[in-house]
Write a structure and sequence with these properties.
This protein is an alpha/beta fold. It has helices at 4-16, 19-26, 30-44, 60-87, 103-117, 132-138, 202-213, 227-235, 281-301, and strands at 49-52, 55-58, 93-98, 122-127, 143-149, 160-175, 193-196, 219-223, 240-244, 255-259, 266-274. The strands form two sheets. Strands 3, 4, 5, 6, 7, 8, 9, 10 and 11 form a nine-stranded mixed beta sheet that branches. It has a two-stranded antiparallel ribbon with strand order 1-2. Strand 1 and strand 2 (55-58) form a beta hairpin. It is globular, with a radius of gyration of 23 Å. 34% of the residues are buried.
Length: 305
């Protein structure tokens, strides 16, 4: 009989690209992972991996086994959710991966509410911009608070369920004394020096796309994904920043915020979980708390656009 742990290791190696990377994510030694994969090779009687430069790749037998592994592990997840639903109680642990720009407005209030309503539940929070949905498919996190900009294709991995939370527009941020409170026409920013995220990021791509659609190439002397740095540059009068509404307190001194009137740049914030036919009470509780925090944050802490 195939060992579930070994199948999970095979899937992790395939996703990470190397035994060393998989071992690091599993908090194991590379030798321990290699040993388990050797045992899995013995179980099936075929080579599953082959060297591919500095990484490894699946053989044909490995590819076929991985396809079945995905279905096997999904069935295990379904069984766990079904048992949890029968118990009808929220569990004791969950792991949430969230974007840094959502922590203050959504994540912190949601975790506070969860602590009040479900004191037995401990939510471990991983704050990262990187590969969140992949971590969800690998089972290293249970809920992802992610984003998708509206100009990008909707590419959700198989087996992932998406719950929209809110549309989050980018606001134009300037020094308080350099702007009035009226909405901004995007083309007006053609004469501004902008502080924007790198073009390799979703937000950076969204800004470039919107500017090109408005008929200009933006001037971007300041490239940083650090929102605090963008705000500091705007406050100093050195640049204009474009920052998601949920990532900024409009009462921050020294800055002025304004919506984009004609070509809003929107990101969809969503909660993602592994799809199961039976809802898991624990992940359901986390998603509900995120949804409530997003709704309340938009209504009470942030200006209308």
């Amino acid at each position: 009989m195939l060992d579930l742990r070994r199948l999970y290791m095979l899937r992790t190696v395939a996703a990470r690209g190397s035994i060393a990377a998989a071992a690091q994510s599993l908090a194991l030694s590379a030798g321990a992972v290699s040993q388990q994969l050797s045992a899995l090779r013995h179980d099936v009687g075929a080579d599953l991996l082959r060297p591919d430069g500095r990484t490894v790749a699946l053989t044909e037998a490995g590819r076929v086994l991985l396809e079945h592994t995905d279905r096997i592990l999904a069935a295990v997840q379904e069984a766990e959710s079904a048992v949890a639903a029968v118990k009808g109680t929220v569990g004791t642990t969950a792991t949430l991966a969230a974007l840094p720009s959502t922590v203050a407005t959504i994540v912190a209030p949601a975790l506070t509410a969860l602590g009040s309503h479900h004191p037995q539940l401990t939510v471990n929070c991983l704050v990262t911009d990187q590969a969140q949905l992949r971590e969800l498919t690998l089972g290293t996190v249970d809920v992802v608070l992610g984003q998708r900009y509206h100009h990008l294709p909707d590419t959700v991995p198989r087996g992932i369920a998406i719950s929209p939370l809110l549309d989050d527009p980018l606001l134009v941020i300037t020094a308080a004394e350099q702007a009035d409170e009226r909405p901004v026409v995007l083309r007006e920013l053609a004469t501004h020096s902008l502080a924007v995220p790198p073009p390799t990021t979703d937000c950076g791509q969204a800004i470039l796309h919107a500017c090109h659609q408005a008929g200009f190439t933006p001037t971007t002397p300041y490239i940083t994904a650090d929102i605090a740095a963008q705000l500091a540059l705007a406050r100093a009068g050195l640049a204009t920043a474009l920052v998601p509404r949920t990532a900024i307190d409009p009462a921050t001194p020294g800055i002025r915020t304004a919506p984009i009137e004609d070509r809003p740049i929107l990101r969809l914030l969503f909660a993602a979980t592994r799809h199961t036919e039976t809802a898991n009470p624990t992940t359901t509780a986390v998603v509900a708390a995120l949804r409530t925090a997003a709704r309340q944050g938009r209504a009470t802490h942030l200006p209308a656009v």
